[in-house]
Amino acid sequence: MSFIHEKQSRNFLLFLVLCVLLWVCSAFFIYQHHVTTIKEMNLQQDYAVASALLEQGLSPDQIAAAVTGTSISSPGRELIRKIGITEDTALRFLPITHRASTSLIHTLALQTLLLSALLLTGGLFFLRRREKLYLLAVEKVTRFMDGDFSSHLPRTDEGSLYRLFALVDSLANALRAKNETEHEARSFLKDTISDISHQLKTPLAALNMYNEIIADEPDNHLTVAEFSQKTGQALKRIESLIGAMLKIARLDTGSILFEKRPHPVTELVSRAAEDLKIRAEQEDKVICVCGPPEIVECDLEWTCEAISNLIKNALDHTGAKGRIHITWERSHTMLRLFVSDNGTGINPEDFHHIFKRFYRSKNSLDTQGAGLGLPLAKSIIEGQGGLISVQSTPGEGTVFTLSFLTEL
Fold first, then answer.
1. Domains of the chain (ranges plus CATH)?
2. I want to staple 400 with a disulfide (CB 3.0 to 4.6 A). Which of 29, 172, 277, 339 is the partner?
């Protein structure tokens, strides 16, 4: 009965109820009129019978008994049959009955005609409005099929039809979201390919140059050794660049499922800094780790890589005798891990761009890296539901903060 909640159906149902009430009322008035007509005709017949009997010389008492009598005798029945009035007598030979039936037929025909016209008009009006609604729905759905989702199906009323329209609108929204996702995926793929192509130009050009130098001086062992070493470094840079881009692409497309498990923070930090301590010693820098025994729920391998990228960034922007501190603390709802350094810091104009891919500030053009470490770290931490933030003072150092939600 949900169609009752729909305005058009509700109005049409009310119209049908009014038509039924009108038919009942008109039938009652027709019945009253027919009864009145029959009474008048019976009176006219009684007047005619009484007048004829008076002319035959019957007394008024006899006439009154004849008119008001209800008993039927066999001689009376036979007399009526002899004058030609029986059950098979045609109505046209019974003037009073004929006039009564004719009047009733005319009245019923008029009533049927008027009610039929009213019902037909109301039904056509309802169907016409429904047809307009269906044509509007066809137009909107056709637009959806053509990729135009700027308009919506009417949803201003209740009922099954409008629920269907709402579902079609929801389907259109899903199609639009899918189209936008596909467009974003194509744009992302296009941008990724463009970024990789742009970033590979320099090391590939260097490789070609090194190869030409080696080819020109094959007998010069020092030259061959020197540029063979540079070739290896260029290949490592290409490998690192492609690996980082593929990781970021997988993270952005959601194709990586993080396996979050409880891990000691000391284990996490130790694994992240293990391979970088040799570099720190070679560059006369110190990596300091300090913090209480705590447990954090995360994906060990990926989170280690994120922390490792932050340590690399700190080493890149810290001079000799520099110190990189890794500490952590737990609050009521989260665990915070800090990677701080006393390096060059971040300039105000660079602050809002440091997490963009391949972004290099003018003060870090001579440092290592391709500008992918911080974007990769951000994708890893946020992909696990964490947060990464940064504070920095130019000339004094930078602090990166990783925040992991913990269970209460």
1. 2-145 (no CATH), 161-252 (1.10.287), 261-405 (3.30.565.10)
2. 339
